[in-house]
Each structure stands twice: as structure tokens, then as C-alpha cells.
Write a structure and sequence with these properties.
By secondary structure, the chain is α/β, with parallel strands linked by helices. The protein has four helices and three strands. Helix content is 44%, strand content 12%.
């Protein structure tokens, strides 16, 4: 496999106010880079916002594939059950080798 582009950004703050602009900017960069496979590893509380913004930028279309952690996949299932039309996604779930407790420690 050839990796042509890596775009990394941290999603570890509240996604309100100016931080929404940071998320939007990063998703726009991903869209404009012609990347077709996107890997998402973020806290559960950010999943819905990330995917809503991604949908707004056209990153949820059939030409994109998302690889997400179990946490994100579980959150997406919850969102879809509440409102099936809210998000259309194609995601492959992978199990993160880091426990939730380890993730919490890392973000303190």
C-alpha cells in the first residue's frame, strides 16, 4: 500500500465556539487532499460532532471509507438507532489496544 497523505489533528477539547472552526478546517483539508480512507480515534463525546461535520463536507459519501475504533462504532450505532436519517456512514470498526482508562489518563 502507498500512503500518499497523513492528516492528523487532535479532538480533545469541547467542539464549540472557535474549536468547531478547527474541526471544520481539518475536515476541509482532508476533503481537499483527495483522501478516501479516514481513520478516526476520538473520545465518544466527539464522535457525533465529527461525523456531522464530516457529512457537511461530503466526507460521508460512498467514495469514502472510515475506519473507527469500537467506541466510535458503538456511538454511531446509538445515533443511528435514535435517528436513522441523521447519519449515513460506511465504517469499519477496529478494536483499540488502549483501554478506556488508559485513554482517560492520556487526556488529563
Amino acid at each position: 500500500f502507498l500512503v500518499k497523505n497523513v492528516q492528523h489533528f487532535d479532538v480533545h477539547v469541547n467542539l464549540t465556539g472557535p474549536n468547531v472552526k478547527v474541526l471544520s478546517k481539518e475536515l476541509k483539508l482532508i476533503r481537499d487532499s483527495l483522501v478516501k480512507v479516514i481513520v478516526l480515534n476520538c473520545a465518544e463525546r466527539f464522535v457525533e460532532q465529527v461525523f456531522k461535520e464530516a457529512k457537511d463536507y461530503g466526507l460521508m459519501e460512498k467514495s469514502f471509507v472510515w475506519i473507527v475504533t469500537d467506541v466510535a462504532a458503538t456511538k454511531l450505532e446509538e445515533i443511528s438507532k435514535k435517528d436513522p436519517d441523521s447519519l449515513t456512514y460506511r465504517a469499519l470498526s477496529v478494536q483499540c489496544p488502549i483501554t478506556v482508562e488508559d485513554q482517560i489518563k492520556m487526556h488529563r
